Amino acid sequence: MNEITIARTNVNFDRLNEDLSQIAGYEGASLNSDGVVIYLADGTDSTPFRDAIIAHRESDISVRQAEKDALRSEIATLKQRVGNIDSLTALLQLDAVKLVYKTLELNDLLWETHDDQQR
Question: What CA–CA distance (Å, rounded) separates 87 from 104?
């Protein structure tokens, strides 16, 4: 395995990792104070990885980040519609159930992200 450091620290690591994982030979990446460290299979040309890191826009979000944002938005809307949990109509009870379900979905995504970062 080869390790290459590219001096760039202003990145959206989730999105960058997602992009780099699409290139053959990619084994992983990390960030440190010197920049992005990429781990490549032996014999892998680093050029496409360098190009991807240089072209990376930190404002782009990953698929997982987009899922989290969508869930947070749905949760906020449901919270607003449900309001006071002690005085729910039948229709609002369904919204309350959806709210719990969406909150659990978001929690699962957050824990997946946490678990991925621990590896």
Answer: 23
For residue 91, pLDDT over 60 is answered with yes
Average pLDDT, the chain: 86
Cβ-based neighbour number of residue 38 at 10 Å: 26
Secondary structure class of 17 (helix, strand, coil): helix
Structure tokens at 66: 């987009």
What token pair was written down for 53? Answer: 């890191």
- Ranges assigned E (strand) in 2-109: 2-6, 26-32, 35-40
Using only C-alpha atoms, the chain has a radius of gyration, in whole angstroms, of 20
Give the span between the Cα atoms of 114 and 100, in whole angstroms.
Answer: 21
Output the CA torsion sign for 27, 31, 33, 34: positive
Is the pTM higher than 0.85? The answer reads no
Residue with tokens 């990953």: 62
Residue with tokens 């053959």: 24
